Amino acid sequence: MPLPEAVRLLxxxxxxxxxxxxxxxxxxxxxxxxxxxxxxxxxxxxxxGLTPLCLPDLTAEPLPxxxxxxxxVTFPPDGRTDxxxxxxxxxxxxxxxVSSSVVYGGARGHVDEQTPVRxxxxxAIARIDAESVYRDLxxxxxxxxxxxxxxxxxxxxxxxxxxxxxxxxxxxxxxVHVEDLASALLELLVRGTRxxxxxxxxxxxxxxxxxxxxxxxxxxLPMPEHAPADQADETLRNERALDPSLLxxxxxxxxxxxxxxEGFLHCLAVGRxx
Length: 274
Prior knowledge:
Largest sheet: 7 strands, parallel
Strand content: 15-25%
Helix content: 25-40%
């Protein structure tokens, strides 16, 4: 898609996903201001061509945005910052908020944009509350499942010996490669998409144990020991398949990594990012 004239990008929370969005935006000639709390991280961002915004507290001073600026929000909710930022973000060209599939609580089976949210846990409640703030601004909400890629994912935990297989590993888990999530977010921001809700994910939700077995065979590692299912992170206790069809049909394309197989093979091929 051709770039709108003078579009700029402000990323609030330049972590795992935000840094990839920033990289791709710069590659398309889009100026990027990227926030971080860490002065050392700010210096690193500057070396990559970004304009760093080093703020220990995002509400401490006015943000550099106007009607030409699209804003990506990726930081986790803390019960305070989102509401404090809202009046400033109302001036932006568009806002995209990266939420989480934890908003579905204990929902099982097929999950899409029509599935009701469930505040079953503190994490779910915090995300639902944050979503409401951004939806009131006309923001686009993208609910992401487990995000993985070079530098983060099951492959690294297996290699370190830290991974334990929760329960029998038969529960179906959804995931999305960070490159696919980042490219989708950037496209929505470039388009200036507003008042939308999307579920993100790849095209093959799969049993957790199946993915681990694939990785062990690929990496020539033994299967990890089992651990009680109730000791796993809540995102690994669910039995549900996120349907990202609306997102990919809206963008008019398919994900670069449609299944965990292509995604993890890419991770293993490129290694940990520097």
